[in-house]
Amino acid sequence: xxxxxxxxxxxxxxxxxxxxxxxxxxxxxxxxxxxxxxxxxxxxxxxxxxxxxxxxxxxxxxxxxxxxxxxxxxxxxxxxxxxxxxxxxxxxxxxxxxxxxxxxxxxxxxxxxxxxxxxxxxxxxxxxxxxxxxxxxxxxxxxxxxxxxxxxxxxxxxxxxxxxxxxxxxxxxxxxxxxxxxxxxxxxxxxxxxxxxxxxxxxxxxxxxxxxxxxxxxxxxxxxxxxxxxxxxxxxxxxxxxxxxxxxxxxxxxxxxxxxxxxxxxxxxxxxxxxxxxxxxxxxxxxxxxxxxxxxxxxxxxxxxxxxxxxxxxxxxxxxxxxxxxxxxxxxxxxxxxxxxxxxxx
Length: 346
Fold this sequence. Notes:
The structure is a single chain. The protein is an alpha+beta fold. The protein has 4 domains: 103 residues, no CATH class; 104 residues; 46 residues, SH3 type barrels (Roll), CATH 2.30.30; 54 residues, CATH 2.40.50. 17% of the residues lie in helices and 47% in strands. Helix 4 crosses helix 5. The protein is elongated, with a radius of gyration of 36 Å. It starts with 21 loop residues before the first helix and ends with a strand.
């Protein structure tokens, strides 16, 4: 020991640093603090989590959330390095849990360890979306109808499925208020009640893209909030007069619709298999739709004719061989009927 040695002014031990030695630094520095209580707010209806004033959807359970929530109660000194926190959680009541934390870290290159206890408060509050749904709030209605006919079951099912897929996609993208509050079937089609104007527009566009037709919007002023006018919008979706797989009659020939265009349909002639464009006005009537056919037995078949047994009357009707259909005796074909006439469809 010499007069040039450095001593800790607190404990008097020699040190390599000016000021307090490492042990005294560690003893004098509150290297972490721990809040006594943390709170978590979730929606009892859908499980969404509230952070500050923002709701987010979450599929995490209480057991998953509790350790991470308890760790947020710990605050470290700026000189702490490589901190780790072990958490054990004990449920006290439905609304309260106790978390026991063991905290380890490096402070001035020396390992340190401490413990603390945090109370977790579990709050329940209805989220913004569920609050709107329970209050029958909505911003629009998508009305799905068809020109000159009633939408088929297939079309209403497709429209409903598309709407649900869009709702899930928008929720995944963070649009919590873009919800569907109700889907109601009527004798003229279906009505889809939506929580935002954006989802109403997306649903209308997707239905038209998949089923054809067009849509128009009809806003209605319903009030004012914070100086801003509030509107509810009716999205009027009009499906075309014809749909895919409709079998139509034109000049005593039958055609199966493949695509609907503006004022025209692209269809296959069920007699020879040729493709034709037909004006809407030239269609005499819709016989049926090939999505819902009957099944009939082929009683015989040769190079020129086939005999098809009517499943109702058990009588055999003879048809010229169809160039678009390969069939043998004993096979079954799909048919529609118009009166006593059978029509073979694809």
